[in-house]
Task: structure prediction
Amino acid sequence: MHALTSDTKNAIPLVAIDAKGYPAWLKKQPARERDWLTAAGFDAIAGKFMLVPGASGKPTKVVVGADFKTDPIWSLAGLSETLPAGTYKLETRLSADTATQVALGWELGAYRFTRYKSAARKPANLVWPAECDHKEVERLARAIYLARDLINTPCEDLGPPDLAAAAKKVADEFGARFKLISGDQLLKHNYPTIHAVGRASSRPPCLIDFTWGNAKAPKVTLVGKGVCFDTGGLDLKSAGGMLQMKKDMGGSAVVLALGMALMAAKAPIRLRVLIPAVENSVSGNSIRPRDIVKTRSGKTVEIGNTDAEGRLILCDALTEADSESPELLIDCATLTGAARVALGPEVHALFSDDDELAEELVHAGAEMADPVWRLPLWKPYRKWLDSNIADFNNVSDMPYAGSIVAALYLAEFVKPTTAWAHIDMMAANTSAKPGRPEGGEATGLRAMYRVIRSRFG
Result:
């Protein structure tokens, strides 16, 4: 780990306390420390900290305001970058679950994307808290770092072949069976919409497909949207609209990272990860508005807008995923701006007709500070996708409920009996917060991980 250590040498004690309990705690401290904290006006409000100097002037203690009951993972997450470089040891006793979350938050706060620019400083280290599950922190932090790195990498260095190489590296590490279908082979193997969206790029589209685990174990399948860059195609985005489009493969990064965490945990499942990877470019052979594409399912789709490409590549992958009747199927995608309009950048839209699954994901999101909010798969809006010349359109002419309509499109490719959830995510932090630097983010990963571990052991 970057900022967690077992070395207690020269570790500075760190006391975390909430504002309510602070006055009683302060009365019990040595007079010198009590006078220092009082003179500084320290009040233990969550997020604030105070260095307490010794006789030599060097800090001998840090007092931190923290609320572990309502926000354990992020309570100390900002300290790895704000405390002076050194090693700190938490003196406050925590439960095993809280200690694990605190350690994970500290490590996530130490993340820096350094592929093109080195970090300005080293993070402050934290001695592993007592009762903490080291392995759980390590596998989740490593997975989230991977997702953040992939999302932050621009398309010049992360086109479809590069994303495939990253997925193969993960698959190989855990002995998963890896398969790649690329370029015109997509047509041969009946993945026409993935090919149609990605064919205009100089880098061929592909379907990344790997499986891991006992074939007789419960099947859990993850599908992630891998649009490495989205120009909008012939329905070209504005210059401003393209600025964040390197993150349009965020869904693929999240499911790849989630798969890595599940394999590292040796989850008793048969895991399958499917990632359709494309670059939605402009060329002489770009897919055009009003073209008709026959999908893998056999259903035909009229292209109402080439900038609604994510649902096109996902529909072929979902058809394949559902063909095995998995016990659980989840897809993740940076699918619609409408979801961000409805819920903002920090809460992610969840769609599922499985009430039990939806409730589990919402509850896990609240527990893990990784929130998702359920929106309805409102069936009356399905008619908005009707087409006069194809089975349906990929967009609606109506200016309403964009994220619901997109989810209804995806639902056409999943059996009603399948336990399926679709998460329309941001996959990025729009501004820096403790533990969550600006840039790529593995949104929903911790919530999904907890549900899968809980469901299948």
